[in-house]
Amino acid sequence: MATRIPEEVINQVRTAVNITDVVSEYVQLHKQGRNLFGKCPWHDERTPSFSVNEQKQIFHCFSCGRGGNVFQFLIEMKNLSFPEAVLEVAKIAHIDIDQQYLEGANTSKPVSEHAALYDLYTEAAKLYHHMLMNTSAGQEALDYLHQRGLSDETLDLFHLGYAPKESLLLPFFQERGIDYQLLRQSELFVENEDGSLRDRFVNRVLFTIRNSNGQVIAFSGRSLAHDEQAKYINSPESVLFNKSQELFNFDLAKNPVKRSKDIILFEGFMDVIAAFSAGVQNGVASMGTSLTVEQVQKISRIANQVLIAYDGDHAGQAATKRAIDLITQVAPALKIQIINLPDGLDPDEYLRKFGETEFTNALTHGLETPVTFAMRYLKQGRNLANEAEKLAYLDEVLKILATVDNPLERDLQVNQLATEFNVGAASLNEQLSYLIKQTPQDNQARDGKRTRQQAAILPEPQLKVRSRTERAERTLLMWMLHDWHVWQEVTSISDFHFTKLEYETLFLLAQGYWSTHNQYDLGLFLDYLNDNNLARALTDLENDVMISQPSLPAVKQLVDQIMNVTPLADQIKHKMQQISEAQQLGNNELLVTLTNEYIILLRQHHAQQ
Ligand SMILES: [Zn+2]
């Protein structure tokens, strides 16, 4: 498979059939109310829990959770890959896909569509760089960067710049007769109330953001003033700049990464630049906020291993944990190691303090696996002298160990835990093998290659008792997808995120979806997700959540519930009580469940701090 099947073709194929006709080949369906019901083809059951929603063109099993559109049905039913499923449906619909596929590949648009905007950014970057390097206005900024250890050569290479206190770009471009609409569209300016424009960046050191081809597409400005204004401001998204898809320095890093297959993920632009000038050329950074699904996908296309080198402070460590979780979910084949710099220093600080040799040493030695990182991270904020907390800690660590394939690594860690906490290795091993049996083999399910035999022994799902916050998240996510106003309202809240990883992942992917689509279409979005587990989650939401006309106060209420109301500290306290009760009762199964819930609460709590 050299290239992907174009989305229009996939959409045409999917809409050419009725999912009911395809499913009926495998399942006897009976009409009941608006939906069709039948016995799930993947497991034995007496009462039907499998349904087809013809209006939405999706299937869903309330019992095993499988769900999706016609493609996911065939992927699960016949062990097909996604392209194979598309071809299969095309056959049913008598669509000659190969021919169209070739045509689609030949008519790809030239990339120069936004040439005028690219030119504008190139000019702006040159001008800002000139201000920094050659003018007295830029002297303070230049001194600052020199102080941070950057040479002129590095400043040239990364096109660092300075935006002066006075208007610079506007008169420059107006003098050249650049079209007003183009200037407006560029996002290099802020619009005044009367519709006139002014420079967006004023008195700031500017980091130039380039796309994968090295074209300038945005700036990030660091304030030089010592007052209360924002330390960093970034270009807003524009037709050139989609921040969830870009990685700082990806253009310069990609060739070194292709050679070594390693990529280093830093937290700040300064870290990337400092490392680069110290000879470490495979570093990138995400755009200010946390790592996104698209960025992980981008990385996984060229690298086999990610080294995470976030800041040593608490926020950096929490971001590391989130990055590990996200990478594991999005690109399970990608190997992860964590660079743990001594003394909680940032990479940039460390480099300045200890010099290049020490720095490159630290990047290649002292690496942690996700397991050793988690063991260290989970200790934070926990009193391990307390029996219940120690137990909760051990249980969480064992749970992570249960996902490690290598028995040797598991053994090593178990012995280390036994020594460190003065507990018997045998009892730890016993608990570990119990947990291993409980851990589903997610990776097989993810690529749709699970055999029917494996599917048949899947345990029935637990009763779905959802917390108020989870119910709020489910409703809000559905409203956001179905109603553009709700989407805009919620995405304008800084720091908004879903606490449940599944919903957060759907939310992150929806951002990518919206950047290339004008409206929410369930079938299209399911194809866009291209992941069986996410398709299941979304189908479950679509079947479960009523889409009414959301009012603004109702939206605010849900956001409030998710972000503020749930008093985590109270919940954590309550959970602790339940844990010690379960301990007294000797109910191990309950203890495991409670402990897991407890850890999730703690993580959320950490993430909020
Ligand atoms: Zn089922």
UniProtKB/TrEMBL annotation:
Notes on the domains: Contains an N-terminal zinc-binding domain, a central core domain that contains the primase activity, and a C-terminal DnaB-binding domain.
Subunit record text: Monomer. Interacts with DnaB.
Family statement: Belongs to the DnaG primase family.
Alphabetic keyword roster: DNA replication, DNA-binding, DNA-directed RNA polymerase, Magnesium, Metal-binding, Nucleotidyltransferase, Primosome, Transcription, Transferase, Zinc, Zinc-finger
One Pfam family per UniProt: Toprim_2
Keyword Zinc-finger: yes
EC category: transferase
SMART domains per the UniProt record, alphabetical: TOPRIM, ZnF_CHCC
Catalysed reactions, semicolon-separated: ssDNA + n NTP = ssDNA/pppN(pN)n-1 hybrid + (n-1) diphosphate
CHC2-type zinc finger locations on the chain: 40-64
Originating gene: dnaG
Keyword DNA-binding assigned: yes
EC identifiers of the protein: 2.7.7.101
Cofactor note: Binds 1 zinc ion per monomer.
Function: RNA polymerase that catalyzes the synthesis of short RNA molecules used as primers for DNA polymerase during DNA replication.
Single GO MF annotation: nucleotidyltransferase activity
Domain Toprim residue range list: 261-342
TM spans (from-to): none
Protein name: DNA primase
Cofactor: Zn(2+)
